[in-house]
Amino acid sequence: MTEGVPCLLMRGGTSKGAYFLAADLPADPEARDALLLRIMGSPDGRQIDGLGGAHPLTSKVAVVSPSADPRADVDYLFLQVAVDLPEVSDRQNCGNLLAGVGPFAVERGLVPAGERETSVRIRMVNSGDLATATFPTPGGRVRYTGDAEISGVPGTAAPVVIEFPPGEGPLLPTGNVRDRAAGVPVTCVDNGMPTVLIAAASLGVTGYETPRELEEDTALAERLRAVRREAAVRMRLGDVSTATVPKLTLLAPPRHGGAVSTRTFIPVRCHPSIGVLGAASVAAGLRLDGAVGADLARLPVTGDHVRVEHPTGHLDLECGLGTDAAGRPTARRTAVVRTARKIFDGTVFPRPAPIPGGPR
């Protein structure tokens, strides 16, 4: 890899990541992950020797390839690269980097651009779920400028409309609208992202604290770990000690005209905003009678619109529920407007691989 690897660095939603064609990376997952650790500069709290930005939201990778699934144009594998640990995880999706997958597919010639706009059908390899991203391509080129604004990102950009068909898995992984985990009432919901909904008050916080204040609360962190471990078992996710799912979202009454106020943890770092798929799961959970947070939410009387407040603003979604043949709740429609911007397109040169038996 001394010649470097083709890479496109892009902001997708409120995250930033390195996008690669699968063909430009090793086919062997172990070799691929070792290379990505060197590219991103991990393990190192500053990621000083790589592309990573010293935070989980800026240490992400999207691997894109043509899809063999007739329902999709491209496959998108999301990889979370740990900052200060030598770990790469494929155990979750990322709805923020998803916003850049369609434009990346056009940039790399995987999907032809339309004359006005382009829709790219995407299979999220991590979960098998599908999404369709639609964005402007005037004259057959991706346009990144526009007037769409999303909280947590300065300025404006072209809108990327992402629509999610109903997933194949259950909306309620435990089969219950409400459970208890580590003695705390929770609702476990999966509308694209396994998420545990918790009333902030049940953990002795308001839910309006800053991310830093919440992260500095060591007692809260221990309770979150306990809730997460027990909820994961109930959700059939197994041992999640090295995984970033399920997400934990604290709920409080809205303060700024939205449906609910949120603070989300990955797993005990507090998200400065909220992930797209996590917000979709929150929105679905709020519409379930008896769910944790349903009594706190202020939902519109009609329509599917849900505004989810987070530490740096809000995220707007369309989320409608229905029922399946057995009467179980299902997501009927989920859609969100995000933005993406190409930051750098070129060649990244990874840190040299350590010499066996030598210093690391």
How would you describe this structure to a colleague?
The chain is of the alpha+beta class and 360 residues long. Helices cover 16% and strands 33% of the residues. It is built from five helices and 16 strands. It has an eight-stranded mixed β-barrel. The protein is globular. The two termini are 18 Å apart.
Extract low-pLDDT stretches.
Answer: none
Largest beta sheet: strand ordering: 1-2-3-4-6-7-8-16
Shape: globular
Order of helices and strands: EEHEEEHEEEEEEHHEEHEEE
Helix content: 10-25%
* SS content category: alpha+beta
The average pLDDT is 94
Topology, number of strands: 16
- N-to-C CA distance: 18 Å
Rg, Cα atoms, Å: 20 Å
Outline the biggest β-sheet: 8 strands, mixed, barrel
Descriptors:
360 residues, alpha+beta, 8-stranded mixed beta barrel, 5 helices, 16% helix
The gist of it:
InterPro entries: OMA_tautomer-like, PrpF-like. This protein is of the alpha+beta class.
Strands, helices and their partners?
Blueprint (H helix, E strand, L loop, with lengths): L4 E8 L2 E7 L7 H12 L19 E7 L7 E8 L6 E2 L5 H13 L9 E8 L5 E7 L22 E6 L14 E3 L2 E7 L3 E6 L11 H5 L2 H17 L12 E6 L7 E6 L10 H11 L18 E6 L2 E11 L5 E20 L12
Parallel strand pairs: 2-3, 4-6, 11-12, 13-14
Antiparallel strand pairs: 1-2, 1-16, 3-4, 4-5, 6-7, 7-8, 8-16, 9-10, 10-11, 12-13, 14-15, 15-16
